[in-house]
Design goal:
The complex is a heterodimer.
Chain A (H helix, E strand, L loop, with lengths): L3 E12 L2 E12 L3 E5 L6 H8 L9 E6 L2 E3 L4 H6 L2 E4 L11 H6 L13 H14 L15 H13 L5 E5 L7 H16 L3 E6 L2 H7 L2 E6 L2 E7 L5 H9 L17 E11 L7 E11 L3 E5 L6 H8 L7 E6 L2 E3 L4 H6 L2 E4 L3 H5 L6 H6 L7 E2 L2 E2 L1 H14 L16 H13 L5 E5 L7 H16 L3 E5 L3 H7 L2 E6 L2 E7 L5 H9 L1
Parallel strand pairs in A: 3-8, 3-9, 6-7, 7-8, 13-20, 13-21, 16-19, 19-20
Antiparallel strand pairs in A: 1-2, 1-4, 4-5, 9-10, 11-12, 11-14, 14-15, 17-18, 21-22
Chain B lengths: L3 H21 L1 H19 L6 H26 L7 H18 L4 H24 L5 H20 L4 E2 L6 H9 L7 H19 L1 H11 L1 H6 L4 H27 L1 E2 L7 H11 L11 H20 L4 H27 L4
Helix pairs in contact in B: 2-13, 2-14, 3-8, 3-11, 3-12, 3-13, 4-5, 4-6, 4-11, 5-6, 5-11, 7-11, 8-9, 12-13, 12-14, 13-14
The chains are: A alpha/beta, B mainly alpha.
Chain lengths: 503, 338
């Protein structure tokens, strides 16, 4: 048996009323990239928190071994000292400090003095970054970095403790394609240097591209571990989901109708930077029942286009025409009145009222609908909420369940319910499957098809190109805040889209 | 066929379910310390349950309870107003001067005073919502301005209104004791009930909670967040105006030093009442309990002849304990949010 650098053996962890992990074993060899895959709620983050010392030894059953020796982990700092580096999923950096300070925070000085000399730290950081082939400038203020660069910075910070094992929790969620490539290179480099890596992801493609072995969790138990030679996408998905998904992207046969929306020369000034446009001369049209994909790299203006349509930025120039009439959208409530609705990218920041339950979240977008005279009718309210609960098969004990207690997929269904509750003609979907598991993604795709079938037109933005290609009828390609091309479904492939993105 | 044992077991279960349900209500947890406190008071001093004592508590709390209603709305939408005490003092002084020195008709003086409070509160709201200045800074500035104006207007001397024609009837509104209580008490209770219903049962109430919970989400839901925010300041202004006028009706004299430090009692009462200081959660019943609690505590401490200076120490401790209980409960309710 190979010597494991890290082994978490027979871990069982209970929360009040729930067994989060049941006898889960996870092990990683020296110089190995282990993929850890599973749906939301499968127990991935719980096992990570155990390995990372957030749940202290003693709060769970089972043992943790590092290099064959049993260890007790008291805290994340303790885990770090014992050689376990952890890069969390959420970007977690100090925006006002420099790259160097962010890397060495926690051990700013090498000697036992309390004073940290700025120039020394910057020099040390520069050497460190060069050594690890991470392309960042140690003097830069972190707030100037892109999301991808911040992700790299977090990896650098974990590496600065010289860990044996580096855990990356869904590191590509926020990254654009070229950043992902860059990240993968760094991970492979680390592997060559003899580090072990646990790579947590939702995405099968990343498992097949990068990892040497994959462990699949479902409902808090080990389902299977496969070495690279035995990778089989179908089987991994089945293992994850617990049922066979016949087709990841369901097909749709919707008769596309007349033109519903036309956007001409949409231009919006940048709200913060003078003499710069957020989007410039964006033009496209949308037909009834059509699913239109906005393709482009991060920063191409996709989200900004949707936000503009939803009244969040004032137009500098251009026209928005719905059903042949030019309309004036000054605010979100104007947009809703004209039949537009936006599902934002960031569920937590912009999607859900986290202090409220499912019911209150769904009805809040259209309170008029549930009024009985001056007062809210409990009956109408329950009707509306129950309707969406069953229509979108939101899995929860009831409409009174707090949304914080839902899985990512179900939260996303609540967000979509909220939008549908405004009875929109045009649904704007910004990364509708971001951070949700394969099973829920499939359900969202089905839902998109049902909505299109009902005659709702959809504009969709997604950074997962295969998803966009499969779900949309037509594609508008954006780059540098402007429309650079249009592709019909028949001519759109990853290549043709990317070529236009970079053109 | 009925099995008596089974039915009683069933009844027991139903009762248990009801008890459980009661404990799911957030106000219950605030009531526990209040009941404990009253228990202690009853054991050590029989005077607490005395009819006059209870009605004193109710009368006194009504003098500032209305302001707590307005403050609750402002805190629910995620802002705060620290200037309420100073505004009440200024409005009171303004009314006294308008009525007793400028000799304006009573009704006009009252209307102008309330209008003044609304305008001041609207300025707070405007600075916070439209100019995006932090609520702390804005309202601390307003606190200084109002304190200064109140003193400047009277050269820091009391302004008696007793000799003014019409003062007698006016004072009887503030000083009469219907059912051993006060008119202000009934107004306070009515306002609490009305706003509890508004918060729970109307679209406006839902919009307030949504705005305080997450203003981005509220805006995306088509709610005019700025309008909702400013509306809470306007409502608060009305209550500050009414309280300021009532204060003079009770004291018969305008004084710039009245209501000094009142904002602290008001904010403490809302915190004790379970109104989350980051907005989005809490109820008017909670505020009512918080107000009763603050007033009872100071009453009980006086009855127990606790050193006057130690009283505020105890109030502070009780406030922190209430908030700890509330935060724990909320964490339990929200489960995963860690």
């Amino acid at each position: 048996m190979a010597q494991f650098v890290l082994e978490a053996r027979n871990i069982t962890k209970d929360f009040p009323g729930v067994r989060a992990l049941n006898n889960v074993t996870l092990s990683v060899e020296k110089g190995e990239i282990l993929g850890l895959i599973g749906e939301n709620g499968a127990g991935k983050s719980t096992i990570l928190k155990i390995i990372n010392g957030i749940y202290k030894t003693g709060t769970f059953e089972g043992k943790i071994f590092i290099n064959g020796l049993e260890v007790v982990l008291h805290s994340p700092h303790d885990a770090l000292i014992k050689g376990i580096g952890f890069v969390p999923q959420e970007i977690n950096v100090m925006e006002d400090l420099t790259v160097a300070e962010n890397i060495f925070v926690g051990h700013l000085t090498e000697e036992k003095t309390s004073f940290a000399k700025q120039s020394q730290i910057i020099k040390r950081a520069a050497e460190f970054l060069k050594e690890n082939k991470i392309n960042l400038n140690s003097k830069t203020r972190v707030k100037m970095l892109s999301i991808g660069q911040k992700q790299l910075l977090m990896i650098a910070r974990a590496l600065s403790w010289d860990p044996h094992i580096l855990i990356l929790d869904e590191p590509t969620t926020a990254l654009a394609l070229d950043d992902v490539d860059n990240l993968f290179e760094i991970v492979l480099q680390l592997k060559q240097n003899g580090k072990s890596i646990i790579f947590v992801t939702h995405k099968l493609e990343e498992i097949t591209r990068l990892t040497d072995r994959v462990t699949i969790l479902r409902d808090g138990t080990n389902i299977a571990t496969y070495p690279r030679e035995e990778y089989n996408e179908g089987r991994i998905v089945t293992d994850m989901v617990g049922r066979t998904i016949t087709s990841m992207y369901p097909s749709r046969s919707v008769k596309i109708g007349e033109e519903l929306l036309r956007v001409e020369g949409l231009t919006v000034a940048h709200p913060k930077i003078k003499n710069k446009n957020l989007i410039e001369n964006v033009s496209f049209s949308l037909k009834k029942g059509e699913v239109l994909g906005l393709a482009g790299l991060v920063g191409a203006g996709r989200t900004e286009t949707l936000s503009t349509l939803f009244g969040q930025y004032p137009l500098t120039a251009g026209k928005i025409i719905i059903e042949g009439r030019q309309i004036n959208i000054k605010s979100e409530s104007d947009a809703i009145k004209h039949g537009l609705c936006l599902v934002t990218e960031d569920r937590k920041a912009n999607g859900l009222l986290m202090l409220a339950n499912i019911k209150h979240n769904i009805v809040v977008t259209n309170l008029k609908k549930i009024l009985n005279g001056f007062f809210i009718s409990r009956k109408k309210e329950n009707e509306v909420a129950n309707n969406y609960m069953s229509k979108l098969s939101i899995k929860a004990p009831g409409t009174q369940t707090m949304v914080v207690n839902l899985s990512g997929g179900n939260q996303q269904k609540v967000v979509i319910s909220k939008s549908l509750n405004t009875d929109p003609k045009i649904l704007l979907l910004d990364e509708p499957t971001k951070g949700i598991d394969v099973g829920s993604k499939n359900e969202i795709y089905n839902l998109i098809n049902i909505l299109a079938g009902m005659g709702i037109s959809i504009i969709m933005v997604s950074s997962e190109l295969p998803e966009l290609l499969a779900m949309c009828d037509r594609f508008i390609i954006l780059a540098h805040g402007t429309t650079v091309g249009e592709l019909e479904k028949s001519e759109a492939t990853q290549e043709t889209v990317m070529v236009k993105c970079f053109a | 066929m009925s099995n008596p044992e089974l039915t009683s077991a069933k009844a027991g279960k139903t009762a248990l379910r009801y008890i459980k349900k009661i404990f799911e209500l957030q106000e219950v947890y605030i009531l526990i310390p209040l009941l404990a406190l009253i228990g202690i008071a009853s054991i050590f001093n029989a005077g607490f349950w005395d009819g006059t004592n209870i009605s004193t508590i109710f009368r006194r709390m009504s003098m500032w309870g209305l302001i707590a209603v307005g403050e609750t709305l402002i805190i629910l939408i995620g802002e705060i107003d620290i200037s309420v005490g100073a505004m009440v003092a200024f409005v009171g002084v303004f009314f006294s001067v308008a009525f007793a020195i400028w000799h304006l008709p009573l009704i006009l003086a009252i209307l102008l005073a309330v209008l003044l409070a609304v305008v001041l509160s609207a300025i707070n709201g405007f600075c916070i919502v439209k100019l995006k200045i932090s609520a702390f800074i804005t309202t601390i500035a307003m606190l200084y301005i109002c304190k200064g104006l109140a003193k400047a207007m009277t050269s820091a001397r009391p302004v008696p209104i007793l000799s003014e024609p019409g003062a007698e009837g006016f004072l009887s509104i503030g000083q009469s004791e219907p059912l051993s209580l006060s008119w202000e008490f009934f107004l306070f209770i009515a306002v609490i009930i009305v706003f509890q219903i508004i918060l729970r049962k109307t679209a406006y109430g839902r919009k307030i909670y949504a705005t305080g919970d997450n203003k981005n989400v509220a805006r995306l839901a088509g709610i005019k967040v700025d309008r909702i925010k400013i509306s809470t300041f306007l409502i608060s202004g009305v209550f500050i105006g009414i309280s300021g006028v009532f204060m003079i009706a009770k004291e018969a004299v305008g004084n710039a030093n009245f209501a000094d430090g009142l904002e602290l009692s008001v904010i403490a009462a809302t915190a004790i009442g379970g109104i989350s200081l980051v907005g989005g959660s809490g109820t008017m019943i909670g505020t009512l309990i918080g107000v009763i609690m603050m007033q009872s505590v100071s009453n009980i401490l006086i009855l127990l002849s606790v050193n006057q200076h130690l009283q505020s120490v105890l109030l502070g401790i009780i406030m922190v304990l209430s908030v700890i209980v509330d935060v724990q409960r909320r964490n339990k309710l929200l489960g995963k949010l860690d």
